[in-house]
UniProtKB/TrEMBL annotation:
Organism phylogeny: Bacteria, Pseudomonadati, Pseudomonadota, Gammaproteobacteria, Oceanospirillales
InterPro entries: Erg6_SMT_methyltransf (IPR050447), Methyltransf_25 (IPR041698), SAM-dependent_MTases_sf (IPR029063)
Pfam families: Methyltransf_25 (PF13649)
EC number: 2.1.1.-
Keyword Heme in record: no
Gene Ontology MF: a single term: methyltransferase activity
Annotated keywords: Methyltransferase, Transferase
Protein name according to UniProt: Class I SAM-dependent methyltransferase
SUPFAM superfamilies recorded: S-adenosyl-L-methionine-dependent methyltransferases (SSF53335)
Length: 208
């Protein structure tokens, strides 16, 4: 188990019990995502956390594969699905690369609040493009702190990670993120900023 796995396992219970920090923005994300979904879709959410978003979207699609590096997060997600009487979500522990879906096999991929936590985030975007069908949808929400004072977190992150106080955090800019998404073969359908000082960006992109 890596330090990031251990960190998120340790945070799972508190994460599940914490209220959503910006409910209005979260509901907007749900609505805009669901507008791209349909009942025949096969969907993957990587970095699904405790499964709340997967449970909300499940009634709108055929099946959701929900993955996360934290087994404790996954366990909570399974319980949420059972309590909501949702049976079309498959929760499993693992990374996007370990999921290893077939090329052109999925209708939608969600990566919410996770890309900036991935060292190989450019490769993750390339993998999303590989596994999506032409016309498939990629929905992401990403903290882009490269032009904010929070960019200096990169100086503290290695120490915080060693002490088990924080996970990996990588400094992205919105322009770099958009460049990589477009380079991977996507067109941008929606893009808007949210969060403190607008440092997070919500994107709906479609594979060309």
């Amino acid at each position: 188990m890596s330090k990031s796995d251990k960190f998120w396992d340790s945070k799972a219970k508190g994460y599940a019990e914490s209220p959503i920090s910006d409910e209005l923005t979260y509901q907007k994300k749900l609505r805009e995502t669901q507008a791209t979904l349909s009942t025949g879709m096969q969907v993957l959410e990587f970095g699904c956390g405790t499964g709340t978003t997967a449970v909300y979207h499940a009634p709108y699609v055929q099946h959701i594969y929900a993955i996360d590096i934290s087994e404790k997060m996954i366990e909570i997600g399974r319980n949420k699905a059972r309590e909501a009487d949702i049976d079309n979500i498959t929760f499993s522990r693992g990374t996007l690369q370990e999921f290893n879906a077939k090329a052109d096999s999925l209708d939608a991929v969600l990566g919410l609040n996770v890309i900036h936590l991935m060292e190989d985030w450019q490769s993750a975007i390339t993998e999303v493009a590989r596994i999506l069908k032409p016309g498939g949808v990629f929905v992401s929400s990403t903290a882009c702190i490269g032009h904010s004072y929070l960019r200096f977190i990169k100086l503290l992150a290695p120490i915080g990670k060693r002490l088990g106080l924080m996970p990996d955090v990588f400094v992205l800019t919105e322009s770099t993120l958009l460049y990589e998404i477009k380079k991977a073969g996507f067109s941008i359908e929606k893009q808007w900023s949210h969060g403190k000082n607008g440092i997070s960006v919500f994107i709906i992109a479609r594979k060309i």
